[in-house]
Amino acid sequence: xxxxxxxxxxxxxxxxxxxxxxxxxxxxxxxxxxxxxxxxxxxxxxxxxxxxxxxxxxxxxxxxxxxxxxxxxxxxxxxxxxxxxxxxxxxxxxxxxxxxxxxxxxxxxxxxxxxxxxxxxxxxxxxxxxxxxxxxxxxxxxxxxxxxxxxxxxxxxxxxxxxxxxxxxxxxxxxxxxxxxxxxxxxxxxxxxxxxxxxxxxxxxxxxxxxxxxxxxxxxxxxxxxxxxxxxxxxxxxxxxxxxxxxxxxxxxxxxxxxxxxxxxxxxxxxxxxxxxxxxxxxxxxxxxxxxxxxxxxxxxxxxxxxxxxxxxxxxxxxxxxxxxxxxxxxxxxxxxxxxxxxxxxxxxxxxxxxxxxxxxxxxxxxxxxxxxxxxxxxxxxxxxxxxxxxxx
Length: 393
Hints:
Strand content: 25-35%
Strand order of the largest sheet: 11-10-4-3-14-1-16-15
Number of helices: 6
Structural class: alpha+beta
Order of helices and strands: EEHHHEEEEEEEEHEEEEEEHEEEEEEEHE
Helix content: 10-25%
Distance between the termini: 46 Å
CATH architecture of the largest domain: 2-Layer Sandwich
Oligomer: single chain
Number of strands: 24
Radius of gyration: 22 Å
């Protein structure tokens, strides 16, 4: 085991103290409009947690930034400033949306998962079901498995004339367990995005810095992310994350001094509450042993977005994917505080994307992200389930 192997973790609940604001890679909208993402990206959370850990060690952020901007690797820059080098190897998993009981606040939060892209309804009152790959060798009108753009992939299909409607929203733990077993998902286990996340739209005006007066024709609007937390509801909506410390960390605990951290833009902050229970069983593989014993056909569903060199498919699974359901790409950029410049624009596969495999891949990595840095930041977390033609529609 290498000295940087991660063995200890701390689970965190992140409670917004105000609305939050998260940008993606798109430029500022027309007519001065800025729209927050409905879910923060892993790199934003990783940056916030890394900054908080550095501040807890009284890191001179300006000097550290200059060393990194000069081309010095982050770990060496930490060593140059006599800071613990293990700070460069802290891993983050998340963020995950969750809900916790108001009546039993000591109960661990229940993670909520973006609905898989192949989960559909044929009737609003009926349970949701999964679209599955067409049987091998079946030729469907308009689809050719020899098409160079498909590389032998199979389409998702069902037997019938009804039009399927994507479920969208989020699944409860019970709903995700049913999905991963290949069973229908009841409506009670499907939560609409609107019931969990809303947007707080605000209008502002630019200020002339020398006179502190309003600047003419500089009106702008912004939509901030707000979690739906009616005090009369039984559950409180929060964010959750897992911080994984390397072996070299002498005390793998969240610092008591970091009760709040800055997260996202506009100087917004969240309260940080460490949990005694771990979330690790929900960030890599859910019931994977059960899945392996019930079917020869595994599937993988992303629980956090991921950036792949192959655009839509993780390199780890490329040779085993027979079909996929991938949502619209997310533009990813941001500002590199250490280097003092913008990050390159990329496109990420969204959480809820599904990959159908021809057989089990053993062992699977803890993250499907292509690079060590992206795995450290929390991209490419997933759950493992099964698919079977006997459950097809």
